[in-house]
Design goal:
The chain has a single domain, classed as TIM Barrel, CATH 3.20.20. The chain is about 40% helix and about 15% strand. The protein has twelve helices and eight strands. An eight-stranded parallel β-barrel has the order 1-2-3-4-5-6-7-8, surrounded by five helices. α2 packs parallel to α12, α8 crosses α9 and α11 runs parallel beside α12. The N and C termini lie far apart (about 55 Å). About 10% of the residues have low confidence. It binds phosphoenolpyruvate (PEP). The site of phosphoenolpyruvate has 13 residues, from β8.
Amino acid sequence: MNEDKLKKMIERMVRDAMAVNEANVKDPPIAGSADVRKPLHNFKMNINKEKMIAANWKMNMTTGEARVFAAKVKSMNIDRKEVVIFPPIYLAPMMINALAGSGIRIGAQNMHHEIRGAFTSEISPLMVKDAGCEFVILGHSERRHIFNEKDHDINLKVISAINHGIVPILCVGETLDQREQNATFRIIRNQLRLGLNGTTPRQSTSLVVAYEPVWAIGTGRTATPEQARNVHSFIRETLTQIYDYSTARDILILYGGSVTPENTESLIKEKDIDGFLVGGASLSPDKFKRIIELC
Ligand code: PEP
């Protein structure tokens, strides 16, 4: 049996097992979650801020470290900025308590598209919400390249997040090889078209896109303002083709890839850069605060 057939067979078995599980579950089904391909909700999340600064902590920080971080950033004036921290999921409830009243919101770094079932170690949209998360990062390059997530998987997650009232941050970005082969725009267009397949303009009011060139993540090598500007304006154009002009204009497009206090100012000046997804520098409360202040 070839690999493709085997994969399909396993997927079918898992689906069947899920159906049995679902039938035995007493909770009422959540509207819109049974079939992730058919969004039922058309809601608008409150992300009408001008800039967004998101901290992707990845697999870093323990409870004690996170508490110290929260205490240091809690009192800062975030004004018209949307600040969201994405800690490891188990820290989310503690962070929400520790940051109460600050206006800083909490998100999850990933999730499965199904609401429950036999998916060891995965976390569902219900659990993400239950933990108090309002956002979820989807399609991060580490998920794509280390854990082999495909555009189709990411698309299921995007739709599921929207259906459950969680704002997806859809990450897109090219590898160094792809950039050197002049394939950047083709890759970005495909990731957007496939990742957003089946979403409507109304739903996209609850969507954030992050451009994260893979060669810039965690490498200390940032895209130049010109490189970032070109891709961000291409993303805006592609979103206009997928939805329409006024929808595309309102979608926040973040830049991510070795953002530091030193390069924040030159990048944030660019017209289509609406904020940042920050990895390494977001682990330092002082650096993260400085990036927020400079936006
Ligand atoms: C990221 O992981 O999303 C990221 C942008 O990381 P870094 O800022 O460390 O490059």
